[in-house]
Design a protein that fits this description.
- By secondary structure, this protein is α/β, with parallel strands linked by helices.
- The protein is 33% helix and 17% strand.
- It contains 9 helices and 9 strands.
- The protein has helices spanning 36-41, 57-64, 91-100, 135-151, 169-189, 203-206, 229-236, 247-252, 265-276; strands at residues 24-26, 33-35, 71-73, 107-114, 117-124, 155-161, 193-201, 215-218, 258-259.
- The protein has a 7-stranded mixed beta sheet, with helices on both faces. It has a two-stranded antiparallel ribbon with strand order 1-2.
- A hairpin with a 2-residue loop joins strand 4 and strand 5.
- The termini are far apart.
C-alpha cells in the first residue's frame, strides 16, 4: 500500500526533528544531513555536493600513509609559554584546554610509506588552537625535513592553519625562516617536497613552508592566502574577485599546481613521486 512505499530521500536541514549528534553531520555547503558512518567511508567528502568537511591530522595520516607503516617522531615536544602571554585568558590555559581534547600539538610528524614509497610526513591539525604555528610546530617541521634529508626520502606536509601563533610572538615568527631554510636544503639536494594545502591555510604558514613545495596541491575550495579577504578589502577599498583566495582561483593564477579531491589525494601524490621522481622509488 502507498504508506509502505516511501521515497528514499536524503534528510534536509529543515527537517523538524532531533538528530543525534553522534549519528549525523550536516554539510556546511549544501545543508544535507549525512550519516556520519557513510561520510567517514567517503573520507568526509559530502556525497551530494562534493564539499570537503574538515578532518584532523590523524585522519589525513590514515588516508595517506599505508597501514602499519607510520612511526611518529618528536611526540614528546610540548608548547611552552616563554612570554607569559595573556589576552582573554592565559596562554598556558589555552594549551591545557587544547591538550585536554587529546592532541599534544598542532602538528603530527613521522615517517612511513605511501603506496610503498618511503616518505617523511608532517600533518597540521586545525583543532589545536586553530592549527597555529608555534615554536613546536616549526621545530617538528624542521626535524621532519632533516629526516627526509638524512634518509633521502620525499617530504610531504599537509597544512591547515590560521597562521603564526600570536601568543609566542617573535618565537613563532622565527619558525617561518627556520622551516624555509631547511626546505631550501632539501631543494638543493634534489629531494622532493610535496605540499598539500587544505582549508584553511593562511597567515605565516602560507608565507613560509606551505607554498614552497616542488608541487603544491590544494583540496577543492580551500581558503589559501596570507591576510583574509575582509582585511584586504578594507585595506585596498575595493571588492575582491569572486572566489578570491580559493584553491580554484589560485590554480587559475598559477599559485598552486593541482586541485585534487581528497579521495584521490594518495593516488595523486604517489603518481607524482613515481613519475617525476622515479629514482626515489627504486
Amino acid at each position: 500500500m502507498a504508506w509502505f512505499r516511501k521515497d528514499k530521500k536524503p534528510l534536509k536541514a529543515q527537517d523538524k526533528r532531533d538528530l543525534p549528534s553522534d549519528v549525523f553531520d550536516k554539510c556546511q555547503a549544501c545543508g544535507e544531513i549525512l550519516y556520519r558512518e557513510r561520510l567517514a567511508q567517503n573520507l568526509n567528502v559530502c556525497p551530494t555536493c562534493g564539499h570537503h568537511l574538515r578532518i584532523g591530522a590523524e585522519a589525513y595520516l590514515s588516508i595517506l600513509i599505508d597501514s602499519g607503516t607510520f612511526t611518529e617522531m618528536d611526540a614528546g615536544l610540548r608548547a611552552s609559554d616563554p612570554l607569559e602571554f595573556r589576552d582573554l585568558k592565559l596562554y598556558a590555559d589555552r594549551i591545557a584546554a587544547a591538550e585536554a581534547k587529546g592532541t599534544n600539538e598542532a602538528l603530527i610528524s613521522g615517517t612511513g610509506e605511501l603506496e610503498g614509497i618511503a616518505v617523511a610526513v608532517a600533518v597540521m591539525d586545525f583543532g589545536y588552537i586553530g592549527g597555529s604555528m608555534g615554536s613546536v610546530v616549526g621545530e617538528k617541521i624542521t626535524r621532519a625535513a632533516h629526516a627526509a634529508l638524512k634518509q633521502k626520502i620525499p617530504l610531504i606536509i599537509v597544512s591547515a592553519s590560521g597562521g603564526a601563533r600570536m601568543q609566542e610572538g617573535i618565537y613563532s615568527l622565527m619558525q617561518m625562516a627556520k622551516s624555509s631554510t631547511v626546505l631550501a636544503r632539501l631543494h638543493e639536494a634534489g629531494i622532493p617536497f610535496v605540499s598539500v594545502l587544505t582549508h584553511p591555510t593562511t597567515g605565516g604558514v602560507t608565507a613560509s613552508y606551505a607554498m614552497l613545495g616542488d608541487v603544491n596541491i590544494a583540496e577543492p575550495e580551500a581558503l589559501i592566502g596570507f591576510a583574509g579577504p575582509r582585511v584586504i578589502e578594507e585595506t585596498i577599498k575595493q571588492d575582491l574577485p569572486k572566489g578570491f583566495q580559493r584553491a580554484e582561483f589560485l590554480l587559475e593564477h598559477g599559485m598552486v599546481d593541482r586541485v585534487v579531491d581528497r579521495r584521490e589525494l594518495k593516488e595523486t601524490i604517489a603518481l607524482i613521486l613515481r613519475h617525476q621522481y622515479a629514482g626515489w622509488t627504486d
